Amino acid sequence: SSGINAEYGRGTRAVIIDFTLYNANINMFCIVKLVAEFLPTGGIATSHEILVQKLLRYVSAKDNILFGFEVALIVFVVYYIVVESVELMVFRMNYFVQYWNVLDNIIIIKILAGAAISLYRSVTINDLVTKSETDQDTFTSFETIAYYESVYNDLAALCLFFSWIKIFKYLKFNKTMRHFSTTLSRCSKDILSFAVMFFIIFFAFAQLGLLLFGTILRDFATFHDSTYTLFRIILGDFDFLALEQASTMLGPVFFITYI
User: Fold this and answer.
1) Contact present, 226 and 209 (Cβ < 8 Å)
2) Is 206 in contact with 240 (CB distance < 8 Å)?
3) The pLDDT of residue 60 is above 80
4) End-to-end CA distance of the chain, in Å?
5) If DSSP codes are grouped into helix, strand and coil, which group holds residue 17?
6) What is the Cα–Cα distance from 114 to 82, expressed in whole angstroms?
7) How far, CA to CA in Å, does 180 sit from each of 14, 131, 167, 173?
8) What pTM value is reported for the model?
9) Please, where are the H alpha helices in 37-173?
């Protein structure tokens, strides 16, 4: 499906083209947005956004098996919500002293949020597909549901990451892992103090690099680019010659003092 607004003239400030492609062989949707913005000073600034998502989730036998695992996961989450609620009632505010309890709640919240998005996607996608098939003269936008699918994938990735971290909780029976966990617990305050000092200095250099080289070097064009460039310098990926050419005196001084 595609939609193009053909009414444009001297007052037009932007032309936006939205269209959606569907590949039935691999069951993937491609939602595309092309933008051409007419600048007041002349010229055209173009941008694009392409989202490739699997919006029809439960089609094949493999997808149905995955649905069964998702249902089992929700059942386990409901059980753990009851367990964590009982512990909260017993220990009250001391419940949050244990960081493993905080991690458990983070995982539960992410799973519930993902389940809500999955339910919304399953209900909405069928209506959108039916609408696009029955009313082919009207453009049907899949952009919103594709955005929520991206959020769902991000939540799933973060949930999986925290679940792997939680494995350390169940490795305390091992003497080495128990010593490792105890060491981290005892030095956590010192690590936090060092992290605060480190990031104060780090962001100071990021701001300095932005102000010194932001108008000259692409790597320091924005504060985000500046911080990313400094992380790359820590890993040994840097362009010293570009810094020296940007400022013969301040470039080398900035690099040496940062290193």
Assistant:
1) yes
2) no
3) yes
4) 54
5) strand
6) 19
7) 58, 57, 13, 12
8) 0.71
9) 61-91, 99-134, 143-165
CA distances from 3 to 10, 11, 17, 35, 139 (A): 21, 20, 7, 13, 5
Identify residue 30 by its one-letter amino acid code: C
Burial of 220 (0-12, 13-18, 19+ CB in 10 A): buried
Pick from 33, 37, 35: which is nearest to 50 by CA?
Answer: 33
Helices 99-134, 143-165: crossing angle, 10 deg rounding:
160
Alpha carbon distance 203, 258 (integer Å): 11
Q: Which residues contact 156 (CB under 8 A, 6 or more apart)?
A: 114
- Which CA distances in Å does 237 have to 198, 201, 230? 20, 20, 9
Q: How far is CA 21 from CA 6, 16, 73, 137, 206, in A?
A: 21, 17, 32, 16, 42
- Give the tens place of pLDDT for each residue, 225-237: 999 999 999 998 8
